[in-house]
Design a protein that fits this description.
seven-stranded parallel beta sheet; 11 helices; alpha/beta; Rossmann fold; 42% helix; three-stranded mixed beta sheet; 12 strands
């Protein structure tokens, strides 16, 4: 199979690339000048120079392919950089989808469970659940709009599928994303965890589920690729054990304290003219229960959910091996 892959230096994209190469597929990667480095070392692929701000150039540089897996995204968990988020997440998705429709190629669009409803009652939500929606931070809003562009192209004939990954953990987290939580827990005291929760999953299971969707997914369908639904307190306690911390978080962050921290972050951002990671959007997201059912993917794709503990352990070992952990 000939695959055009975006976002190969990101967490999911890098795991997708490694799986595609291991299975013997021909892979083309969209690459910005100077991007890659250790994340792509030793892997077989054909580079397509350019970036998602100029999709037409990217597509002109690419060779023919059977399927496009669009895993690239701009992730801004806050209120800033909405214009940039729309350029990468919305405009690029629309251009790629239109190209695939005209060329009659299958397109897998990697979205997020954050475009779906959260679960205030603890009941895992499905692909059809939209309310109650999540705060319209830049990432959520732009990814919702990107999905709408996909749906419009599907209505016009695109062979498209939308994927909703859960909260991913595992190796090859180069930036890092979920690995930042592990590093924070390892680096100092974390007495309180956010009061919400997530559907935590091994990134390798998500990558495998996406390749299953290429072969078995139904045109126009959405698939949640989630995992174990648990509170952030439970997840952080698992992380603390993985990094060898005896005193992990003991309690959930109260809503009032989360709200205060978020407002302080917003004020600090105005003063610094750069939004910090702790802002009112991020803290609000952390207090929600992001619980999801993967039953549709299990029944239609043969999606499989592996061990969360193994995913956490493997991510920690990756961070240690590649020098992200400070030596004491």
């Amino acid at each position: 199979m000939r695959v055009l892959l975006t976002g190969a230096t990101g967490f999911l994209g890098n795991n997708l690339l490694r799986l595609l190469v291991a299975e013997g597929h021909e892979v083309q990667l969209t690459l910005r000048p100077g991007a890659g480095g250790r994340a792509l070392a030793g892997l077989k692929f054909d580079p397509v120079p350019g970036d998602l701000t100029n999709v037409e150039r990217l597509l002109a540089e690419s060779s023919d392919f059977d399927v496009l897996i669009h895993a690239a995204a701009m992730i801004q968990i806050g209120w800033s950089r909405l214009v940039e988020s729309r350029q990468v997440n919305v405009t690029a998705t629309e251009r790629l989808a239109e190209f695939c429709r005209l060329k009659k190629r299958r397109m897998i669009h990697v979205s997020t469970v954050d475009t779906l409803a959260h679960a205030p009652d603890g009941r895992p939500r499905t692909e059809s659940d939209r309310e109650p929606g999540k705060p319209p931070i830049s990432y959520v809003q732009s990814k919702r709009e990107a999905e709408q562009k996909m749906l419009e192209q599907i209505e016009q004939g695109l062979d498209g599928i939308i994927i909703h990954p859960g909260f991913m953990l595992g190796p090859w987290d180069w930036k890092p994303s979920s690995g930042a939580m592990l590093l924070a827990i390892a680096g100092g005291p974390t007495p309180l965890a956010p009061a919400g929760g997530c559907s935590a999953v091994d990134v390798r299971d998500v990558a495998d589920g996406i390749l299953k969707a290429v072969d078995r997914g139904r045109r126009g369908e959405r698939y949640i690729l989630g995992g174990e639904n648990l509170s952030y307190l439970e997840l952080w306690q698992k992380m603390a054990r993985a990094v060898g911390k005896r005193n992990g978080p003991r309690a959930k962050l109260p809503n009032w304290l989360a709200g205060m921290a978020g407002r302080v972050g917003d004020l600090a951002g105005k003063w610094m003219r750069q939004e910090p990671q702790v802002n009112s959007g991020a803290t609000a997201m952390g207090q929600l229960q992001h619980f999801y059912s993967s039953e549709k993917a299990i029944s239609q794709l043969g999606y499989r959910i592996g061990s969360l503990d193994d995913a956490i352990d493997d991510e920690w070992q990756f961070l240690v091996e590649y020098g992200y952990v400070r030596k004491s």
